[in-house]
Amino acid sequence: MAGYDDRDGLIWMNGKMIPWREANIHILTHALHYASSVFEGERAYGGKIFLSRKHSERLHFSAGELDFQIPYTVDEIEAAKQQVLTANNLSDAYVRAVAWRGVGEDMGVASAKNPVQLAIAAWEWGSYYGDAKFKGAKLDIAKWKRPSPETIPVHAKASGLYMICTTSKHAAEAKGCSDALFMDYRGYVAEATGANIFFVKDGEVHTPNPDCFLNGLTRQTVIGMLKDRQVKVNERVIMPEELESFEQCWLTGSAAEVTPVGQIGDYNFEVGALTREMTESYEKLVRA
């Protein structure tokens, strides 16, 4: 497969449809140097983006957390995303909206004078974890920790927050794993590099409080699905030593969807009935 810079298709960029290979930025773009960038990852099923408007609203929220304003309304972003799908003749696709501080008068840490840019691309993308979606993903335990809310805007979907995700996922893949599990700054179980995590024990579901990491839209959707089934969901502090006692585990995310986990470090989990039910039910929901 060609690299992401060398493909046919069109990308929406600052209000215009641009040939894929021409959708470029200047080397002195502020976001490239200082991570002044926010983004969304979304999936379209049958031509309809699941929770599309919530993603666009969160993009605006994230930009505000990084002290910039996107020069397009939520409605304009919604229309642009549909233009991208139509222009590229895509039905089932991954959609990436990204907003950033561009090149301008400022090239230090401060960048208030630089214009904000927005681009939207879409492409066909299969299962994020490959066959792990059926067999159960294998997770490493990351050496990095999710930071305190006092140190960084942890609830924004901001590019800078993913630096430790990249290094942790690389380390995990080098060990033959699909992903890595983070603890937070207090030592509590937090999330994977790009997905939230759930555990099952004695018929109840347990998931970490999202007080220092993104409360994912897929996470919220799955919690709602569980409550509709009268399954008790415990959003709470989870200690690392509890991993041994859990029976089942899965990850959630727009890219990950609902993916079973078979192993975290030395701990093993079954791909049990509830895990399979949530995987299948989520698939039906997004295509309804």
Write the topology of this structure:
Blueprint: E1 10-13, E2 16-19, H1 30-34, E3 37-45, E4 48-49, H2 52-65, H3 74-87, E5 93-101, E6 116-123, H4 132-135, E7 137-146, H5 163-174, E8 179-184, E9 189-192, E10 196-201, E11 204-208, H6 217-228, E12 233-236, E13 248-253, E14 257-264, E15 267-268, H7 273-286
What do these coordinates show?
By secondary structure, this protein is of the alpha+beta class. The chain is 26% helix and 30% strand. Helix 2 packs across helix 3. It is globular and about 55 Å long. The mean pLDDT is 97.
Which descriptors would you attach to this protein?
single chain, 15 strands, D-amino Acid Aminotransferase, Chain A, domain 1, 6-stranded antiparallel β-sheet, 288 residues, 9-stranded mixed β-sheet
Q: What's the CATH architecture of the largest domain?
A: Alpha-Beta Barrel
Uncertain segments are none
Structure summary, number of beta strands: 15
What structural category do the secondary elements indicate? alpha+beta
The percent of residues in helical segments reads 25-40%
How many domains, as an integer? 2
Mean pLDDT: 97
Q: What general outline do the C-alpha atoms trace?
A: globular
Q: Tell me the span between the first and last alpha carbons.
A: 31 Å
- CATH hierarchy class name of the largest domain: Alpha Beta
Sequence of secondary-structure elements: EEHEEHHEEHEHEEEEHEEEEH
DSSP strand (E) fraction?
25-35%
Oligomer: single chain
Mind telling me the C-alpha Rg? 19 Å
CATH topology of the largest domain: D-amino Acid Aminotransferase, Chain A, domain 2
Number of helical segments? 7
